[in-house]
Amino acid sequence: VQLQASGGGLVRPGGSLRLSCAASGFTLSAYAMGWVRQAPGKGFERVSTISQVDGSTFYAPSVAGRFTISRDLAKGTLYLQMNSLKPEDTARYYCERLRDSLKGQGTQVPVSS
């Protein structure tokens, strides 16, 4: 059972990135999934979730309207489209299986000019 996040990298304020998370060893459609982030020196912040039942979504107020969570069940992959990035979005981003807080190694997203 593994989650492998990718797609991070340095981006300028106002820019966009799409993070991907490949799930292996389990069926993505059977679990609620999400993205959390950890800024330097801070705790985890839940960014977004998606329900396994009906695909309904949740966004933290800090990212609502800028980030979009989605999934490709055929590919077993979770995504996070991030637009209008701000310096305060700088963090390591992890995909998470909500039932047991399983996380991968994360991917770093520095937002800086």
* Distinct helical segment count: 0
Low-confidence stretches: none
- Write down the oligomeric state: single chain
**Radius of gyration of CA atoms, rounded to a whole number:** 13 Å
Topology as H/E string? EEEEEEEEEE
Helix content: under 10%
Largest sheet: 6 strands, antiparallel
- The portion of residues forming beta strands comes to over 45%
Counting DSSP E segments of at least 2 residues, the number of strands comes to 10
Task: Describe what this molecule looks like in 3D.
- With 113 residues, the chain is an all-beta fold.
- The chain has strands at residues 2-6, 17-24, 33-38, 44-50, 57-59, 67-72, 77-82, 91-97, 102-103, 107-109.
- Strands 3, 4, 5, 8, 9 and 10 form a six-stranded antiparallel β-sheet that branches. Strands 1-2-7-6 form a four-stranded antiparallel β-sheet, with no helix packed on it.
- The N and C termini lie far apart (37 Å).
- 27% of the residues are buried.
Distinctive features:
single chain, 113 residues, mainly beta, 6-stranded antiparallel sheet, 4-stranded antiparallel sheet, 10 strands
Helix and strand arrangement:
Blueprint: E1 2-6, E2 17-24, E3 33-38, E4 44-50, E5 57-59, E6 67-72, E7 77-82, E8 91-97, E9 102-103, E10 107-109
Antiparallel strand pairs: 1-2, 2-7, 3-4, 3-8, 4-5, 6-7, 8-9, 8-10
